[in-house]
Amino acid sequence: MANSLNNEPLGPSNADIFQATQVGLANISEQVGELGLSEIQLLMLLASKRLGSWVPLRQVKTEMPGRSCVKVTRVLHKLESMENPGRLVIMRPSVDSGREKELRLTGQGLKIAKLFTKPFTELADKDKSQESPALPQTSRRHYLTGKTALNIPSERGTGDWHFFEVFQGTHGRPPGPFFVAEKDLLDTSELLQDEGIIECSRALKAQGAQANHPVYAADHPRAMADMLYSAIKKDLHFENSYNIDDWFPAAKDKNELFRLVGKLKAGMSSQQWNRLDSWISQWKKPHSKATA
């Protein structure tokens, strides 16, 4: 299986994608809810692309064999709006052309896709056979944050896409790093209190991580706000490394991040705030193609 950290596809080849059978689907019906074969095929197609990348809708319609454009559109609508097992695909206007659409898997979508091909299954079996290192002890003051928390899947379709690399390790690479508030990133509790701090052991277990004690983590807006605060206060060059459109594709999620960032102003010098505010402003402009 290719290494997504080297920008190669994680998923199977196109020849592997369509090996999902009705028998296999029946065997795990409780986990995949109301998904049919067409939905599974589309999930596997997206899983064959580089993790976290946005795929043009026209490309998906071309690569889905034996499926009309109307059929693909219906399948996508179902994957975007499912309640069981949850939202599996997120779609937005293309950043290159607002008239085009592009899409990618959510964390839950990737989890379902893993069930349907041999490479994915082998990786899951390998991960389950090896006990993952214990997560660090956390609390509402010392919680997982930054890129660690951004890789915990969210039903809103936000965040990064490297859960297995971070929490289980892949291809001989150990899990981590685990960023903890006040230890690895600067403390924002006086400015943001405990906004966005959640207990997520159940969500981590559902993805296969070892979480046998309460695990507190920032939700995605709080994790990003913590990252930005540390970067500004430490005078780090982050402007070309963070892409809000990738991690917060929907306008409502961007706005939640912007609200938290506004509260950070009280902890910054005017020069620091002006730098952050100038960078944030670019994501508020019309060229940022967010979906509502």
Q: How many strands in all?
A: 5
Question: DSSP strand (E) fraction?
Answer: 5-15%
Low-confidence region ranges: 1-26, 127-131, 287-292
Largest sheet: 3 strands, antiparallel
- Look at the helices and sheets and give the structural class: mainly alpha
Q: From the alpha carbons, calculate the radius of gyration and give it in angstroms.
A: 20 Å
Helix content: 40-55%
Query: Overall mean pLDDT score?
Result: 79
State the separation between the terminal residues, measured CA to CA: 35 Å
Widest sheet: strand ordering: 1-3-2
* Element string (H = helix, E = strand): HHHHEHHEEHHHHHEHEHHHH
Shape: globular
| Oligomeric state, counting identical vs distinct chains | single chain
Supply the number of helical segments. Answer: 16
Structural notes for this entry:
- With 292 residues, this protein is mainly alpha-helical.
- 43% of the residues lie in helices and 6% in strands.
- Strands 1-3-2 form a 3-stranded antiparallel β-sheet. A two-stranded antiparallel ribbon has the order 4-5.
- The longest helix has 14 residues.
- The two termini are 35 Å apart.
